[in-house]
Every structure is written in structure tokens, then in C-alpha cells.
Design a protein that fits this description.
This protein has 491 residues and is an alpha/beta fold. It folds into 3 domains: 89 residues, Winged helix-like DNA-binding domain superfamily/Winged helix DNA-binding domain (Arc Repressor Mutant, subunit A, Orthogonal Bundle); 114 residues, Aspartate Aminotransferase, domain 1; 242 residues, Aspartate Aminotransferase, domain 2, CATH 3.40.640.10. 39% of the residues lie in helices and 14% in strands. The strands form 5 sheets. Strands 4-12-11-10-9-5-6 form a 7-stranded mixed beta sheet, with helices on both faces. A 4-stranded antiparallel beta sheet has the order 13-14-17-16, with helices on one face. Strands 1-2 form a two-stranded antiparallel sheet. A hairpin with a 2-residue loop joins strand 7 and strand 8. It is globular. Bound molecules: pyridoxal-5'-phosphate. Pyridoxal-5'-phosphate binds next to helix 7. The site of pyridoxal-5'-phosphate has 13 residues, from helix 7.
């Protein structure tokens, strides 16, 4: 195994937490070429021995480098230098522990991965997979509920307190979940979108001593939340039906042997993110059984439940949860718009109390007037009316997209795609490099995403899949956008 030259002096000169000093030194070692792209790094145990430190400190340093894109973790094999190394300038200057413009030297104890400023909505043709068509939202109608919320305010609720949420909204959400998603007997906490829920769960349930299992392709904002608590995100192979339960079992045994047991499984069972496939009942059952046997919690992220077209959506895993281990998350980001920042969690009482306590540290509570307006909107039945309208429109757009893709398939440009039962995007196999096509598309004012952006282990890419959202564009834009995307003369 490779021995890296890292001097203890350079570590002790570094101002900041030890794991950051180690990750900084490792980054230097990679930049100096001590280890090359794709080359294996020492195991956490070996490096801990070499540097006379704790294995968990090394794992935290490795996780830091994973989050920054310098290294990757391969299941059962260890840590490797990534193939596409971030250039030095990709590190935000603020994270380099340099003196800032103001002259002050910030001592960061955490490096948060850079957030992409690439705003999909700024592109002429925005095929982002999870984007609702915000222009369909009934702003005028909703305004009357906002106005009501201010005309007849519930004064007590406008103060601090009631951290878990505005009670009329909790009541509306509970009723809706009971009726539309077969979810009963759960404590509801209203959150600032699913992202806050993911972050709170990572802080409450995860640490450098455990790990999270997720589908091999998934939702990067969720992994980043998990990694912020120092945990390791383990990629579980998936196929055309979603996560493979036998692979999950193997990973559980492997992580136990490594002393980093899996504490949480993060799943998007209804419309797998990003492929949109529905996890079949047999797999749901198998995963649930494995989780129960090993005392592992499941986070079920049901982010676009309503948008299901071919049949009734499968009831959430949380609706059949005899052991109470499923934490259910959902959001108003798709049924309203992401800027509403309203989501909710449904879970057992003990966890709900812990989450509520944690939330009091973050932001006390979610904006009460917004919660109040949504509660009134739901109570009047206008929410479900809008939902029916949006679902019908997205269904038509999905069918239109299918026709378009069939056309490109007949031309040999698209090789294959599966018609999703629901969701807001199609997962499309093409006959050329997905990365190259995406790069050209972005330069040509078209926003699309490609396979490797969704992979935890970027090296596993087949470089043949792109994700095409259909919900956020009208039919004409779908047609013209695809023409521009696939017309080689233009791209
Ligand atoms: C898998 C997944 N979960 C959750 C969300 C919504 O997150 P939030 O409620 O924080 O806006 C999205 C939005 O794109 C998503 O794709």
C-alpha cells in the first residue's frame, strides 16, 4: 500500500480542525502527484497509524475530499483518487484558510462543497428534471389566502413557539396524507423544504462512526447533507427496478466489518431520482425486512407523489411500517414552487420530538403567514384542484415527450428510454457521449443533466444517459428544445 509523505509539522502548522489539516495535506499530496488519478489511497486504518491519529479523523478527512470531488470511495475496495480532479481554483477562496478581503483570517471548521450557481431557469430551454411549471401556479387565487392570513391572523401562532408547525396546516397535511397517501398515526413536522429535514436528520442520526446507504444514482443535496455530519455515503447498485436488496445486504455486512455500520437507508421509492422508475412492492418489502433486521432507519423521500399518470401511485413505504422505522419526507416544492420553502416530515413521536428540538436551534419555525395561507388553500379544496390540473398537464407533456423521443429513436439518435409511470422527467439513453452532448447543450442555452452528475461513484458512468424534464416546458418548447439539442449543426 502506498505511503504518503505527510509531515506532522505541516499538520500542526495548519490552523483549524485536525481532519481539515489532514484533508488539506492529502489534497497537496494529490496535487504534487504523490498519488495519481484512479490510484488507491491508504486505508483509513493505515493512514491513522502513519499519522498517529484516530481512524475516524482520517475518515472525516476522506469524506471532506469526497465532498470536494478529489477522491471517491469504492464499495469494499477503499478510497481512490478521482479521475476528474477539481482544479485548484474550484475551491472557494473562503475555504482555503487565507486572509480574506476584509483582512480577517477566518478559521473554518467545516468545508461545505461549493454550491453550483448554474441556475437552470436561466436557460432558454430548461429540461431540468424536477422543475414544475411555475407559470401554471394560480398566483391570483393563492393571493386571496395570503390576504386572509393577514386579515384574520391567529395572533398566538405569530409568536415564537409551535416549532413543529402551524396547527391548522399540520391538520390539513395529516388529513391529506391519510386520504391521498394512506399515511396515518404519524407526527408531522413542517420544515423549510425537504432539505432542512435531510440536514436535521443527518445531524441527529449520522456521524463519522456510521454510514448511509443510497441508490447508486441519486440526489446530491441529500448526500451533501449526510456528509456534513462526517458520515460516509455508500452507493448501492441499482438496476432497472431501483435499488438491489441483495447488494444492500452485502453493503450492510461490509460496513459492519469496517466498523462503520449503516444507520440509514435513503430512498426515493416512488420515482427513483434520477431514473424515475418505481421500486416494486417485492423490493420494498425486501429492503424493509433487511432494514428491520439490522435496526436501520429508512428515509423515504417522496418528493413528487402526485405526479403519477399510468395508474394510482403505490402507497408510500411509510404506510406499511409495523416497526416504525420509516421517516417520510415530502415537499411543496413540486406542487407549488421551490421558493415556497415548505416541506414536511411524518414520523414517530420520539423522532419528531428530537427533530422539533433541533429545529428550534436552526430557525425556531417556518414562516407562519406562508403556512397559514397554505392551510387555508388546502382547506378550501383549491390545492387539490390545482394538483389535478397540474397532473393532467404534466401527463400530456409526458406523452408529448414520448412521441418526440420516438421520433429521435427512429433517427438513431436516441437508443432507448423507458416510459415512466409518473414523475417529471425521462431517463434517456443516447448514441453518443452524454457528457459531450450536455456540455454542448449548456453552451447552446439548453439545460440538461447527464448520468455522471447523479452518480456517487463518478467512475461508474456509461456516459450514455441524459435526464430530460418535461413538466416545466410547454409542448412547443419541448419540441424546439429537443430539435436544438439533437440537431448536430446547431450544437
Ligand atoms: C429527490 C428530491 N428530494 C427533494 C426535493 C425537494 O427539495 P426541497 O423540498 O428542499 O425543495 C427534490 C427537488 O428537486 C428532489 O429532487
Amino acid at each position: 500500500m502506498k505511503t504518503l509523505h505527510i509531515s506532522n509539522e505541516s499538520l500542526s502548522n495548519f490552523k483549524g480542525a485536525k481532519y481539515l489539516a489532514i484533508s488539506h495535506a492529502l489534497r497537496q499530496a494529490i496535487k504534487q502527484g504523490q498519488v495519481k488519478e484512479n490510484e488507491q489511497l491508504p486505508s483509513a486504518r493505515e493512514l491513522a497509524q502513519q499519522l498517529s491519529t484516530n481512524r475516524h479523523t482520517i475518515m472525516a478527512a476522506y469524506n471532506e475530499l469526497i465532498a470536494q470531488g478529489w477522491i471517491i470511495s469504492k464499495q469494499r475496495r477503499g478510497y481512490f483518487v478521482a479521475t476528474n480532479l477539481p482544479i485548484n481554483s474550484s475551491l472557494p477562496p473562503a475555504q482555503q484558510n487565507r486572509v480574506s478581503e476584509s483582512g480577517f483570517q477566518w478559521q473554518f471548521t467545516k468545508n461545505v462543497p461549493r454550491h453550483s450557481d448554474q441556475v437552470a431557469a436561466n436557460y432558454r430551454y430548461n429540461f431540468a428534471g424536477g422543475t414544475p411549471d411555475i407559470s401554471l401556479f394560480p398566483f391570483h387565487e393563492f393571493k386571496s389566502y395570503v390576504s386572509d392570513a393577514f386579515s384574520r391572523p391567529q395572533l398566538a401562532e405569530l409568536n415564537y413557539g409551535n416549532i413543529a408547525g402551524f396547527s391548522p396546516l399540520i391538520e390539513q397535511v395529516s388529513q391529506y396524507l391519510r386520504r391521498a397517501r394512506s399515511l396515518t398515526d404519524r407526527e408531522i413536522v413542517i420544515t423549510n423544504g425537504s432539505q432542512e429535514a435531510l440536514y436535521m436528520l443527518s445531524q441527529l442520526l449520522l456521524s463519522p462512526n456510521n454510514s448511509v446507504a443510497t441508490e447508486a444514482m441519486g440526489y446530491a443535496p441529500a448526500w451533501r447533507s449526510f456528509q456534513s455530519s462526517g458520515t460516509t455515503v455508500i452507493s448501492i447498485p441499482q438496476d432497472e427496478n431501483g435499488m438491489i436488496p441483495s447488494e444492500l445486504e452485502k453493503a450492510i455486512a461490509n460496513q459492519l466489518a469496517l466498523g462503520q455500520p449503516i444507520a440509514v437507508i435513503y430512498l426515493t421509492p416512488l420515482h427513483q431520482y434520477p431514473t424515475t422508475v418505481t421500486l416494486p412492492p417485492s423490493r420494498r418489502h425486501a429492503i424493509y425486512q433487511v432494514a428491520s433486521r439490522h435496526n436501520i432507519a429508512i428515509i423515504e423521500d417522496d418528493y413528487d407523489h402526485e405526479y403519477h399518470y399510468s395508474c394510482q401511485p403505490l402507497a408510500p413505504m411509510a404506510s406499511d411500517d409495523p416497526n416504525g422505522l420509516v421517516i417520510y419526507l415530502s415537499t411543496f416544492s413540486k406542487v407549488m414552487f421551490p421558493g415556497a420553502r415548505i416541506g414536511f416530515m411524518a414520523m414517530d413521536k420520539q423522532l419528531a420530538t428530537a427533530v422539533t428540538n433541533y429545529k428550534s436551534l436552526l430557525n425556531h419555525k417556518v414562516s407562519v403567514p406562508m403556512q397559514d395561507a397554505i392551510a387555508r388553500w388546502m382547506q378550501a379544496g383549491a390545492f387539490e384542484r390545482y394538483l389535478r390540473k397540474a397532473t393532467k398537464t404534466y401527463h400530456q407533456r409526458r406523452d408529448f415527450m414520448i412521441k418526440q423521443l420516438e421520433h429521435y429513436q427512429s433517427l438513431g439518435i436516441v437508443s432507448a428510454f423507458t416510459i415512466p409511470d409518473g414523475g417529471m422527467a425521462m431517463w434517456v439513453q443516447i448514441n453518443q457521449s452524454a457528457k459531450a452532448l450536455t456540455e454542448r447543450a449548456l453552451n447552446n442555452d439548453i439545460y440538461i443533466q447527464q448520468e455522471s452528475q447523479f452518480l456517487i461513484d463518478k467512475n461508474q458512468t456509461s456516459d450514455r444517459f441524459i435526464r430530460l424534464g418535461f413538466a416545466g416546458l410547454g409542448e412547443q418548447d419541448i419540441e424546439l428544445g429537443l430539435q436544438r439539442l439533437f440537431d448536430q449543426k446547431n450544437v
